[in-house]
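The protein record filed below.
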Amino acid sequence: NMFDAERDLRRVVELPAAREFRPSGWGSISPAASDSSLDRLAGVPVTNSYESSARFEGVPINRASSAFDGDLRTAWISEYNPVTEPWVRWRGEQPVAVRRITLKRLPGRYLKPTRVSVATPYGGFDLPVGRGGEVVLPRTVVTSELKITILSVKRLRRVARGARVPRSVALSEIGVAGLPAANPRRDGDFTTSCSAARVSSNGRSVALRFSGDLSAMDAGEALRFGSCKGAGLSLSRGSNLVAAIPGKVFSVDSLLLHGTAPVVAPTRTTRTATIGTDGKVTLAGAGWLVLGESFSPGWRAWCSDRSGRERELSAPQQIDGFANGWRISGSNCLSARFEFGPQRFADFGYWISGLAGFALLTFILIGLWRRRGTHSPDTDDRPAAVRRAIDRTTASGVELTVAPRSESSGAALQDSRGPRLSVWLFATSTLSVAIVGLLYVIKPATSAQGINFDYPLDHVVEHWVALAAMISLVAGAALDIVARHRRSADSG
């Protein structure tokens, strides 16, 4: 799932005078680079091509040729996604006869393929993976292209507490009789052509060349680059938009512009900001007050001057792509404070919830207090309609046997079922709330440095259990209200 939110490194460089710079710096292999392009750097001939859907975490050693190099220590590793379905492919000049394929897994915490698709230019097969990773085709196929797609996997049953759930497959070797080995070089130096990347500004560009060690490249480490033939990039006086444009294989991560400073007349420098021993910043002149929190128009800021008078600043502006900034003057901003405006609505909701809970608890206690002593052994629990019928016949002096109608019996039975079901629903709601707390204790989700944005997804089960508790509570309350209303109507 790797991607680069900023593929092109673009920065505005302001200069007091025109200068020429030699670009250099550090870069890396782009996750979008093809596996075959990395094989070319490692000396794999073009007669055989090895490709895959993706390399796990973008690391070059996890590319497709690692499953065809005859070395069980290296492997093609890819994240398993049932939607896109990871695949690995070989394509060569000489066809081979394929009937049996052996998928050797890399030892470790990886998912086990259970079903694969074996495709050739002449058709494909959907086949199970047998014991030992053997895949047997229904017939022998002679082909110069073979594509294996992982359709399903067997996940690990047990995952240690706090450990990451495995999400990748790793094949250390894909064995096919007659298939040529990849044999990429794993050490030694490499140097790219001048089209690896480039730096441009004001319509002019400089080509970049990467170089380094193949073992460092395979490990995904930083690789040094420089301009071809020491070419320089000319920047003009004032603002210059400098862009580091990546190539098909390499990305620019850190750019250094080096050049000799021009000879200019000395100018007097002025210190505009100082930091005291107490950590306070003294600013002379205009500047920016920056809050290093995620940008939101809800943030508000106030500044206090030397007299202690406080004034509110205007709406924040986005700083460094994420932070909140306010334009200030140092003489009018001796100290500052911040407040997140929408927080007051959350606080208001907390107070409403607390008061509502207190009111409900008060009503329950009052109801229990009023019911004290209302039930006694002599209490007549017969339906109201039956009691009224018996009372009337008794007053007339005629001895009659009066029985309620069948509809009344059905209504009484329904009234008795209503409270019983509501009690079950209330019990289910209470149990669900207890289960939610228990699940948080049994399966705590780690939030490294408080920046784990998948934290809500780790507790999605608890969310649905809490929702079931709320639905049970509402349904039980509705049934209880309907039953009480019917009893009141019958007694009336």
